[in-house]
């Protein structure tokens, strides 16, 4: 490993980002973090892990959040007050952990607006994984033993929430290519091929040998 780096993986539901992260984790011998972030943040904060699951990728309801965040950087620190389990505060707990992970180790982070949270960090590779409807539906059906209608609805609902969550906390468009270094369409490549594309990019940038 040439130097420390972080890969962030934004993703459409059913596009296989977690499978890509698992493949890269094995190939590069680096950890990836997905929903296990909830357990880690719960252990640190004392907030029940269930609160993080319930609010998973759901936006808060403070329309001024992004303006307050920008004008008062100190308010990005998690609160231990009466708003400790508010969606905005749970996001701050997760953001604090993501920043520390990126600072201390080479790793991958799936979702959680990690590309935006790490926007001021060096050595971050921002990837977005998408796919055509048919390939995503097939993957969801196979992975979760869903029928086609259930798979279509889960993809629709999940991506709607992810889009709202990302827009709320970043002020940007979730699936806009300009936000990322690489956009991969897994309907036209295998999971292994997608992982290889990311590895090629890492080599070109001097992150791995």
Describe the model.
This protein has a single domain (6-204), classed as 3-Layer(aba) Sandwich (Rossmann fold), CATH 3.40.50. It is α/β, with parallel strands linked by helices. The chain has a 5-stranded parallel sheet, with helices on both faces. It is globular and about 50 Å long. The protein has 9 helices and 5 strands; from the N terminus they run E-H-E-H-H-H-H-E-H-E-H-H-E-H. The protein has helices at 17-28, 36-45, 49-54, 65-71, 87-104, 114-117, 133-144, 148-170, 191-204, and strands at residues 6-11, 32-33, 107-110, 124-130, 182-185.
Summarize the helices and strands and which ones pair or pack.
Elements: E1 6-11, H1 17-28, E2 32-33, H2 36-45, H3 49-54, H4 65-71, H5 87-104, E3 107-110, H6 114-117, E4 124-130, H7 133-144, H8 148-170, E5 182-185, H9 191-204
Parallel strand pairs: 1-3, 1-4, 2-3, 4-5
Helix pairs in contact: 1-9, 2-5, 7-8
What's this model, at a glance?
The chain is of the alpha/beta class and 209 residues long. It has helices at residues 17-28, 36-45, 49-54, 65-71, 87-104, 114-117, 133-144, 148-170, 191-204; strands spanning 6-11, 32-33, 107-110, 124-130, 182-185.
């Amino acid at each position: 490993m040439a130097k420390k780096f972080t890969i962030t993986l934004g993703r459409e539901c059913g596009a296989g980002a977690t499978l890509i992260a698992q493949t890269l984790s094995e190939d590069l011998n680096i950890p990836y973090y997905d929903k296990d972030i909830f357990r880690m943040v719960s252990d640190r904060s004392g907030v029940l892990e269930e609160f993080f699951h319930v609010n998973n990728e759901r936006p808060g309801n403070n329309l001024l959040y992004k303006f307050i965040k920008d004008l008062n950087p100190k308010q990005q620190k998690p609160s231990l007050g009466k708003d400790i389990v508010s969606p905005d505060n749970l996001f701050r707990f997760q953001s604090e952990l993501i920043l520390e992970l990126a600072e201390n180790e080479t790793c991958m982070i799936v979702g959680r607006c990690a590309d935006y949270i790490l926007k001021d960090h060096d050595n971050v590779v921002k990837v977005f994984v998408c796919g055509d409807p048919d390939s995503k539906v097939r993957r969801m059906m196979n992975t979760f033993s869903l029928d086609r209608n259930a798979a279509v609805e889960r993809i629709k609902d999940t991506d709607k929430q992810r889009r709202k969550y990302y827009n709320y906390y970043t002020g940007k468009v979730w699936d806009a290519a300009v936000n990322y270094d690489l956009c991969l369409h897994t309907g036209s490549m295998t999971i292994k091929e997608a992982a290889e594309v990311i590895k090629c990019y890492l080599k070109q940038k001097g992150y791995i040998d």
